[in-house]
Amino acid sequence: MKELKDQYVLSGGKKLYCGCTTGSCSAAAAKAAALMLFLGEEISQVRLITPAEVSLTLGVEDVSRGEDFVRCAVKKNAGDDPDVTDGILIYAKLTKDSALSFGEVLIDGGVGVGRVTRAGLNQPIGGAAINSVPREMIKKEVQAVLEQSGFCGGAKVLIEVPEGEKLAEKTFNPRLGIEGGISILGTTGIVVPMSEEGFLGSVEAQINMQLAEGKSHILITPGNYGEDFARACPDIPLKESIHCSNFVGKTLDLAVSLGVKKITFAAHIGKFIKVAGNIMDTHSKNSDCRAELMAACAIEAGADLDVAKAILKTAVTEEAVQILKEAGLLQPAMALAVKRIHKNLCRRAQGVEIDVILFSSVEGKLAEVRN
Q1: Among residues 31, 77, 189, 308, which is most buried (max CB within 10 A)?
Q2: Distance (Å, rounded) from C-alpha 98 to C-alpha 30?
Q3: Half-sphere CA count of 190, side-chain side, radius 13 A
């Protein structure tokens, strides 16, 4: 089993060590609280296996108890990633509830965990900003302890981050319509330092590996969401994707220089709408004109001023997608968007064949250009 202390990326000859996500910390704190509450164990450390199959051993801090609950914390370790949440305490309060069915686990956010106020995010409006994978991690760990204990009921889990509301001001949560705290995030459970040099070195190695296997047609996605969509899409034959993260242009340049003959890009509209504006590094620190580009495509598709203004007020692209759908303009606007994206990628690709598939988390496939 891989250990966190051994996980790193190389950047300029220097090792940058990985850390753990807020989701992993929440699941670890919940597991520790469950072990103390239901099994009566006294623990100072807790072990957790992440979705990436990396083992974490985390210290358990600030334990408090009541008749039917245990509350404890785990300290966030971001490794060498410049994360504003590094070093904070993430708490889980676990409460017995005999009224719940056997093994039932209810998860909510308390102090310092944001609340979703706008549509288009991972959780519904009004829900705690604890994303799907962390929720599954928490549920899995608590249910495993419940099964050992023989307790006939279930458990309520409250995740709290005392510093969360203040820290959220340094994140994009306020712009996304997440209020009152940070989000509990993570798809792999591990934070990998985002070194551009190290990241692109990894991309180059993956492209070379596929070329060595005789694959001249590769699938590129920004990350896990694009990869999951491609795997679930029956008309995308390629299932092994290379993640470009925000480095769309530089990943394309690498693929061209290494001799790739064809590239299929499968991407969420929220990431790739920027490419319609020829923005090839999509990190929000460099640009964020998603609403403007969505509005431009809407106007070109025949939207009136009210629709365009509504799109310009959106904080997340999924919200703009729903506005276009309600206006009956989703298909033509997305067809225009994907054509612009395809044109910009082809201009940079120097003759390499390009396919582009855009999707929405809510609406599925939105538009495509295939050769």
Answers
A1: 31
A2: 18
A3: 24
State the amino acid at position 364 in one-letter form. G
* Domain at 2-191, CATH class: alpha beta
Q: Say how far apart CA 103 and CA 199 lie, in whole Å.
A: 41
Contact 275, 266 (CB under 8 A): no
| Cα angle value 42/44/45 (rounded, 5°) | 115
Kind and range of the H or E run holding 14: strand 14-17
Q: What is the mean pLDDT of residues 154-173?
A: 94
Q: Are the CB atoms for 95 and 293 separated by under 8 Å?
A: no
Dmax (CA) of the chain = 69
What confidence tier does 172 reach under pLDDT thresholds 50, 70, 90? confident
- Does the predicted model carry a pTM greater than 0.85? no
DSSP-derived 3-state class of residue 174: helix
Buried b (16+ CB within 10 A) or exposed e, 225-239: bbbebbeeeeebebe
Q: Which amino acid is at 106?
A: L
Where do runs of H (alpha helix) occur along 234-329? 248-258, 269-272, 290-300, 305-312, 317-326
Residue 47, token pair as written in the block: 């072990």
**Radius of gyration in angstroms for the set of CA atoms belonging to the chain, rounded to a whole number:** 22
Residues of the chain with CATH 3.30.2110.10: 2-191
Core vs surface per residue 130-162: b (16+ CB within 10 A) or e: bbebbbebbbbbbbebbeebebeebbbbbbbbb
Provide the token pair at 125.
Answer: 């409006």
What's the CA gap between 155 and 247, in Å, rounded?
43
> 3-state DSSP helix/strand/coil percent for the chain, to nearest 5?
40, 25, 35
Structure tokens at 45: 């450390």
The single residue listed with the structure tokens 């005789």 is: 214
Average pLDDT in the 278-294 region? Answer: 91
Element containing residue 55 per DSSP (H, E): strand 54-59
Task: Give the closest residue to 359 by CA, choosing from 252, 232, 248, 238.
Answer: 232
Give the pLDDT score at 195: 54
C-alpha–C-alpha distance, residues 111 and 311, integer Å = 32
Of all residues in the chain, the percent with pLDDT exceeding 70 is: 98
pLDDT score of 307: 98
